[in-house]
Design brief:
By secondary structure, the protein is of the alpha/beta class. The protein contains 15 helices and 15 strands. It has two domains: 191 residues, Glycogen Phosphorylase B (Rossmann fold, 3-Layer(aba) Sandwich), CATH 3.40.50.2000; 194 residues, Glycogen Phosphorylase B (Rossmann fold).
């Protein structure tokens, strides 16, 4: 049984688990996915022949957002004890009724939501951690995530060390995400305008990420402003990602800055079910993620705290031999070797990002070399076969 606690979106962490699900040996494993509600993930999995069950939580258990973590242990306990206990018994009963042998929780939140229920059922659970925690290591949230599972998978060595430190416990394993070559499914007409502009000599840069502060769109926008009229080759930036609720101030700030500085070569497409239709046409990809920063807009300071882990978008770009610009945070340096398979800049450094963009926009030979090296690296270290084999081995060891 797999449990995905955040089915609202098909972001990188969800796609990593779905890739695993779709490639497990069905002669050995019979996966079933449990979700708190269908979201986008439910129909997506069902369309691929993976059975889905909904076990709906109530009260505080159904609340999302980092503000819940800020309530404090006693407040959360008082507000959520009843709903948490009820949900735990629902999970326990489901596991027993379906004769589930092993449970795989897809995220830290999933581990917290179903951990007690799995324990009550007497079955074993594997927790899958795909990013650093945004709360201190002494927080009860982190402590519970460490003690509830019987084994843990971290998708990068950085993630492992940020959660477990230097522990060499064999039940904690770093298993890199595997990636399949992305294939666009949308009609080619979606790319007509891009292909025409490329024929006119434009270089296209893609940023594939939700439009949220820690993804660093404002840094990318500032780098584009700095490069206005300074590159030999013309370029256009395409931002492909949704505009999540709760970040309206950030969205307003980005569009205001574009207007104030007359930036007309930066385009947001919004959410797309098939981002690969854009990715395969990009000349460069860029993800300027941040760990933490403060952004001021309209006199209000907003504290940014990211939880980047092992960005799937980098691996997808490498699988298509696209040169990458990333920031040296989280597990990104385990993906990108600076100057060899891509370019790394410091997080929040708009000047450095502008220099990296300029270097790639005006140097097609460098783009070709970095893209080829990235393609070779993703096939040698981040193959889907290696990913599935490593996870399957862990399953077998816990049988």
């Amino acid at each position: 049984m797999f449990y995905i606690s955040y089915p609202q979106r098909l972001a990188g962490s969800q796609r990593q688990i779905i890739t695993l699900l779709c490639n497990l040996d069905r002669n050995r494993y019979e996966p079933i996915v449990v979700l708190p509600f269908p979201g986008i993930v439910g129909p997506f999995l069902e369309s691929r022949g993976i059975p889905v069950e909904i076990i709906e939580p109530r009260g505080l258990m159904a609340a999302y957002g980092k503000k819940v973590l800020n309530n404090g242990k006693l407040v959360n306990l008082a507000r959520g004890a009843g709903s948490y206990l009820s949900y735990s018994f629902k999970i326990r009963n489901f596991i027993r009724d379906r004769a589930i042998d092993l449970v795989h929780s897809a995220e830290a939140r999933a581990t917290l939501m179903i951990g007690p229920g799995v324990r009550l059922s007497g079955r074993k659970m594997i927790a899958h951690f795909q990013g650093e925690f945004t709360v201190p290591s002494t927080n009860y949230i982190v402590r519970l995530c460490k003690v509830l599972p019987n084994a843990s998978i971290c998708n990068a060595e950085f993630v492992r060390q940020s959660i477990f430190g230097e522990s060499d416990c064999p039940s904690i394993q770093t298993i890199y995400t595997g990636i399949e070559k992305p294939i666009a499914c949308s009609p080619r007409c979606i790319s007509t305008w891009i292909e025409r502009r490329k024929a006119d000599g434009f270089v296209f840069i893609g940023c594939f990420a939700s439009v949220v502060p820690f993804k660093g769109y404002h840094i990318l926008l500032e780098a584009v402003r700095q490069l206005k009229g300074k590159t030999r080759n013309k370029f256009i930036v395409i931002g492909v990602g949704d505009f999540p609720e709760g970040h309206e101030w950030y969205h307003s700030m980005l569009f205001q800055r574009m207007q104030d500085h007359g930036i007309d070569n930066f385009i947001f497409t919004g959410w797309h079910d098939d981002p690969f239709a854009f990715l395969e046409l990009m000349d460069i990809t860029c993800l300027p993620s941040l760990t933490e920063a403060t952004v001021t807009y309209n006199g209000v300071s907003h504290r940014i705290r990211g939880n980047e882990g092992f960005p799937t978008t980098h691996l997808e770009a490498m699988a298509l031999a696209k040169p990458i610009i990333g920031t040296g945070i989280a597990g990104v340096p385990e993906q990108i070797i600076d100057q060899e398979t891509g370019l790394l800049v410091d997080p929040g450094d708009a000047n450095g990002l502008a220099e990296a963009i300029n270097a790639l926009v005006d140097n097609p030979e460098l783009r070709l070399r970095l893209g080829k090296n990235g393609f070779d690296r993703v096939n040698s270290l981040f193959s889907i076969d290696q990913y599935v084999k490593s996870v399957s081995s862990l399953y077998d060891s816990m049988a």
